[in-house]
Amino acid sequence: xxxxxxxxxxxxxxxxxxxxxSTPLTEEEVQGLIPSWVTLRSELNELESxxxxxxxxxxxxxxxxxxxxxxxxxxxxxxxxxxxxxxxxKFRTTERNIGIAPYAISVELQKLFDDVNYWVRHExxxxxxxxxxxxxxxxxxxxxxxxxGRHSRLMADLLMKKLKHTPLNWGQGNLxxxxxxxxxxxxxxxxxxxxxxxxxxxxxxG
Length: 206
Hints:
- The chain is built from 8 helices and no strands.
- The longest helix has 19 residues.
- Helix 2 packs across helix 3 and helix 5 packs antiparallel against helix 6.
- Helices cover 51% and strands 0% of the residues.
- It has one domain: Fic-like fold (Orthogonal Bundle), CATH 1.10.3290.
- It is globular and about 50 Å long.
């Protein structure tokens, strides 16, 4: 993430400082923080956690026939982070240290949706592996300025529910607060980048 000295008054705290595995924000995206009273990273984490909880409550009230669609993934991200970030629910428009080129996001998402539908229809992989592969590909595309990990984990769990399977395990802990668990998760994703899903499958099965 961006360093506080880069962006003046709004950076008068460690709010945007985090580990090297997180997506850096542009200056414009940093200025998209809506609650001006937030000055600490812990406050932002708590606020985003509440937003995700509200999104999960919202999910209980809707039907998700269009789960594998660009419209739905945008709407879910918006529900998770609306009131916190002005860019909630909007695809990123700039290059990052991870993720594909912005112009290719929509095309690659549709390829992913088509692949998942194929895997399910032809039982290409066990259901839990379909969930893990879906999660990895969505993280790899990295559609949004930030929140991609949390968004893609929730999307994977929704897919599991749609396929009448239990949610993925996610290491039996808080990936935001437990640094060792997060390192294990990142390592599993990096292995999956090279086509080796063994560590990710082990991680999501607990």
